[in-house]
């Protein structure tokens, strides 16, 4: 039940604090049960004809009832006043996965931190857990580039998109986005198995991520030490990338860091050469920490904007006194 009375910024700050202190729940995370239900439906209906229609129906069956339930519960909790925001904090915390992303990146960073102690097998195995591309033949520069790319992209998916949808549509918006993003991660592939069945999942995830991804790309530009070059890279590179959302975020993030991403990659045994994103030098081990600082600066900018109405009211009250 968001509003512009300062509660939004407080709820977001508390949810972020829980994520920082606790990370994702190791047991009984609601998305585990949701994922199992999605697997059952996919095995049952992803066959034969009309797979696009079947995939769309399964998407609706999995997401719409949950969103309606959250809407109903949110309406009831709104009557409680401030105690009702506890539900918002918990739900938003469950939707955020930023600390979890950092925990996945940490082994890669440790394996590639020093040139004399590089552990390519460890880095490849850790990266394979968070990307869809083939990592078995990657060298250190390719591993670093892929890690920066996925960190930037996941900052949009696992953090800023949830915050955006909480501000815009409350808990129901957060749930709709998180479940849609989960189904896209499970079904949204252009493989023979999922190309038709997962089309709705992929398109809906693109739609729900459109505004938060573009806002995040613009935020990277605003907090960048190279704003003009960052804007240029968004327009000339990111918006021409194969994924409009991911391209904008990665191009903006790379330009803000002064590094170049993109280039060769291998997906399911097929090599592709992707256009460059960003400008400057190749990615170095220290850039993984710089990505996190860039995300923190952008997060601070979002929180400042959300808290601004309350800060203005406080300042006006102090002047009046």
What does this structure look like?
One of its GO terms (biological process) is cobalamin biosynthetic process. It is a multi-pass membrane protein. The protein has 321 residues and is mainly α. It has one domain (7-320). Helix content is 70%, strand content 5%. It contains eleven helices and two strands. The protein has helices spanning 7-22, 30-45, 51-77, 85-95, 98-112, 120-128, 140-187, 199-223, 227-236, 244-257, 287-320, and strands at 260-267, 270-278. It has a two-stranded antiparallel sheet with strand order 1-2. A hairpin with a 2-residue loop joins strand 1 and strand 2. Helix 1 (7-22) packs across helix 4 and helix 9 (227-236) packs antiparallel against helix 10. The longest helix has 48 residues, at 140-187. The two termini are 32 Å apart. The relative contact order is 0.12. The mean pLDDT is 91.
Spatial order of the strands forming the largest sheet:
1-2
Spans where pLDDT lies below 50 across 5 or more residues: none
**Considering DSSP H and I runs of 4 or more, what fraction of the residues is helical?**
over 70%
Shape: globular
Structural class: mainly alpha
Largest sheet: 2 strands, antiparallel
Task: Count every helix, treating DSSP H or I runs of 4 or more residues as helices.
Answer: 11
Number of strands: 2
Give the domain tally.
1
Strand content: 5-15%
Radius of gyration: 21 Å
Please give the alpha-carbon distance between the first and last residues: 32 Å
Mean pLDDT: 91
Give the ordered list of helices and strands. Answer: HHHHHHHHHHEEH
